[in-house]
Specification:
The protein is built from 4 helices and 6 strands. The protein has a single domain, classed as Aspartate Aminotransferase, domain 1, CATH 3.90.1150.30. With 118 residues, it is of the alpha+beta class. Strand 2 and strand 3 form a beta hairpin. It is globular and about 40 Å long. The longest helix has 17 residues. It has a 6-stranded antiparallel sheet.
Length: 118
């Protein structure tokens, strides 16, 4: 997936906002909380960071093309970085981005969820 397609997809999710920060990475938030980052790759290839469930974290940590996300994982957070941006992983990435958005949304206050119509 390219960064343009990543940004288009994240923008299609409900109540999202975009900022460029942390080395000019594309940072996507819901309710002011980060759910996805495009950037921080170990090379010039696109790389994407997202929050996961405990089970997906274990699975992806051991899968080719993924690794625990720098910074996040060292602090005990369940975030993964996809470092293989080949086209055959696009559908999986869309699933994980949607799931990350859902997980972060669930962590918002009930009031904030109502305000954002989530």
């Amino acid at each position: 997936m390219t960064y343009d397609k990543f940004n288009q997809f994240c923008n299609s999710l409900p109540a999202t906002t975009h900022v460029a920060q942390w080395g000019n990475s594309d940072v996507w938030k819901v309710g002011g909380k980060v759910f996805a980052i495009g950037g921080w790759g170990p090379s010039d290839e696109p790389a994407f960071v997202f929050k996961t469930s405990d089970m997906n974290y274990v699975f992806l940590s051991e899968s080719e093309g993924y690794r625990p996300a720098p910074y996040f994982a060292t602090r005990g957070m369940k975030w993964i970085q996809q470092i293989d941006s080949s086209k055959d992983k696009d559908e999986n990435l869309k699933y994980y981005l949607t799931e990350s958005h859902r997980l972060v949304s669930l962590g918002l206050t009930k009031k904030m969820q109502r305000e954002l119509d989530l």
